[in-house]
């Protein structure tokens, strides 16, 4: 990537990135009842980081988020796998989910679902995969 | 989750946290963790033994994929207990030994112990599984960990060669095993071993009975290194010695024996089973013992000796399969073969474990394992000498060691078939005692040579100046304990016979307990002048004679050229197939993604077109379309225009943006068609892929330079048009044909009621088809790592592990030469020729390498 010098793009994206990330967060949590879910939320988050990379450059992204995205991917896979095997501890078959409705402070009646943990795994895996590919290709010059 | 499940899975959990543990306590040798944990497991299993001895096996089940009849069922009976104790007991001793053996300064010790622990867990799972598919899974896992451990020193060509060889052979056997299991399932409708036992007689008359048996035996024979699949075991000796002692003599190679014992209630009684198992074992026994004598590497002798001893046990298992055909007293005589098999299995683990550890100690102290360079070590290493004497005497089958007893029982068992009166044994049965006796003589010879050439005689010059002494306590203790155990098993065999062997034999032959008889596992040190004892006396006499004259007659071996060995055949065929696949792959993997897309689409055309025009009731419905609003016309026109413009554009960014336009317009269509999930996904995917393309194309050369090469290509055009037509037809067919009840109602109802979600798409993704999603993200992960590797870790031709691909796609000659050397264990008859060839290639290589680097 050539060093970006577009001041408009840079300033706008500084704000927009957070809006996109917030939207991704919304997509993630709302996934079970309305359009969204871990996969889309993951791609959206990656899109936000991608915007950052386009407006500035890959090095900036690495500085802002100094994590190894390969590990993020691995962590996501591990979480997904653990939610699957976790069912064993309750004498249930692999990947059997459980859910219930609880009254939480501030939120009121809320549904809590183990599928959300699985979805978190999907989310992290997608972010990790996309960013690994992007950074690898982008840095190779 | 039952305690038994936790016991089986705990090594895996420990393996997962071991690297973290290493960070918290960097000075702790990880061997302690493995040793302590396997000792705990051993103790726990001992705790079960009283229950098992009383005849009440433990059965714990856990649903895994209930819809496919796959459950994670563990079943602990006498047979599994014997193996589980062997696995954890040897695991403890080997871990303690490895603390002294493996250098703690190496930071890669994590890898070693993680693999070792995973292996231990897999092995426990293998012997405890009651479900064929979980058994198969653990079976393959042991192959994989064995591969990783043999290739532990991956910088060495011979390690890699040995690791690959063992993987290829045991995995091929594993696939055979899986096919056999599936055939069993087709025959009986169950994957559960217990239920298979109950299926009984109808199985034997099924036409698939024989194929299933052959496939399962194929798996067992490859794993247990039976002739002619034994060739991987000698090369597996490249592994660190603790691994050889643990995997390749005490536990993993016995998995095949376990499987034969476990499956014998199903197959025993069939003549094919009897002949293949007993004769296969007998041939392996003879071949292994005869070949062991010519080895010069300490571990080489032990490897061939292991092959031969495994053959001995296999042969006994085959003989014991006659039990079911006999009645009363006769039956118990054949059951004794089963007792002998399992008793020898225990003895073998004990004496071979100690001998392997001694070989490791000798290697550590002197720096060589070549018996031609060793000798006279008894003066400086008295403890190691004593232990190896114990082990070797037990191996040779001399009193008062455990090996003597099981060898006597073996000799008795091979005489028995003469009187069996089935399978025409009265004529061919005479082979058994003869071959067994000859093999025993050679066993005596290599045992004697092993000790004599290492510890007795004059000490070589190189060994006189160096400071050679007995190994430290941690390395001496495990083999010493095993040596003592070899003696104890000989003097007090009842210690193991009643608590371990008898329940195991009863588990192996349920027919005995079913008929109300009890096995009397009386093993006595002295049982009079039986034919077996006379045979042993003969073995000692002939063996002593042959040992003393060994230097004269071992020259016989040089008459057999190794070129025609089975291992040579393996090398030649592997080489041939590598070249063949390289050629075949080069035919279509030409590096042009345009061709790949052509293949994919062409294949799709064939398959979908075939199905479309060969299915019975498919009607194309034309005319009854929904109203298309004017703005939708606009979008569709834009879509088509953008798509058509792509081939005609001259610059890449424009092409990318045009494809992006197609995608975004598609998104808009999804919005109008009220598919918010699709729209959302399409939009995000489109944004990211456009950016990715831009990133990639930034590195590509300008399009103009390629301009000349691109011209109108009729095949591509035809494929493109045909795909378009086919998709249109499919869309029309979908409108007209509706043979099934739509599945959507089910999902609408169930996703709220049983999965608690309102968004059907997401509920399907994470819940109904969660398995798919999990595997998909795994594929994604693997793909991203693949991209990372391709770009970041571009390997040079000179790197470790990379095949040096020459200009004609040939492999470097020096690799092949080294391979040949490793396979023979000595320089080989062609050594001179090889060296010459190596020099030549080295000269001719250098310009080629230089050329590659410049390019």
UniProtKB/TrEMBL annotation, chain A:
Protein keywords: Cell membrane, Membrane, Transmembrane, Transmembrane helix
Highest taxon in the source lineage: Bacteria
Keyword match Nuclease: no
InterPro entries hit by this protein: CPA3_antiporter_subunitB, MnhB
One Pfam family linked to the record: MnhB
Membrane topology: Multi-pass membrane protein
Na+/H+ antiporter MnhB subunit-related protein domain span: 9-132
Residues annotated as transmembrane: 12-33, 39-59, 71-95, 115-137
Keyword Secreted recorded: no
Subcellular localization: Cell membrane
Family that this chain belongs to: Belongs to the CPA3 antiporters (TC 2.A.63) subunit B family.
PANTHER family to which the protein is assigned, alphabetical: NA(+)/H(+) ANTIPORTER SUBUNIT B, NA(+)_H(+) ANTIPORTER SUBUNIT B
Protein name: Na(+)/H(+) antiporter subunit B
Organism: Saccharibacillus kuerlensis
UniProtKB/TrEMBL annotation, chain B:
Stretches assigned to the MrpA C-terminal/MbhE domain: 716-799
Principal subcellular localisation of the protein: membrane
Residues in coiled coil: none
NADH:quinone oxidoreductase/Mrp antiporter transmembrane domain sequence ranges: 129-416
Compartment list: Cell membrane; Membrane
Matches recorded under InterPro entries: CPA3_Na-H_Antiporter_A, MrpA/MnhA1/PhaAB, MrpA_C/MbhD, MrpA_C/MbhE, ND/Mrp_TM, Proton_antipo_N
All copies of domain MrpA C-terminal/MbhD, residue ranges: 638-702
Chain intervals with Acidic residues compositional bias: 829-843
Domain NADH-Ubiquinone oxidoreductase (complex I) chain 5 N-terminal residues, every copy: 65-113
Highest taxon in the source lineage: Bacteria
Membrane topology: Multi-pass membrane protein
Region (Disordered): 807-855
TM regions (residue ranges): 32-50, 81-100, 112-129, 135-155, 167-187, 199-222, 243-261, 273-290, 302-326, 332-362, 374-398, 434-456, 477-505, 525-548, 596-616, 628-647, 654-673, 679-700, 712-735, 773-791
UniProt-listed Pfam families: MbhD, MbhE, Proton_antipo_M, Proton_antipo_N
Record keywords: Antiport, Cell membrane, Hydrogen ion transport, Ion transport, Membrane, Sodium, Sodium transport, Transmembrane, Transmembrane helix, Transport
Similarity comment: Belongs to the CPA3 antiporters (TC 2.A.63) subunit A family.
NCBIfam families for this protein: 2a6301s01, PRK12645.1
Record-linked PANTHER family: NA(+)/H(+) ANTIPORTER SUBUNIT (PTHR43373), NA(+)_H(+) ANTIPORTER SUBUNIT A (PTHR43373:SF1)
Protein's UniProt name: Na(+)/H(+) antiporter subunit A
Organism: Saccharibacillus kuerlensis
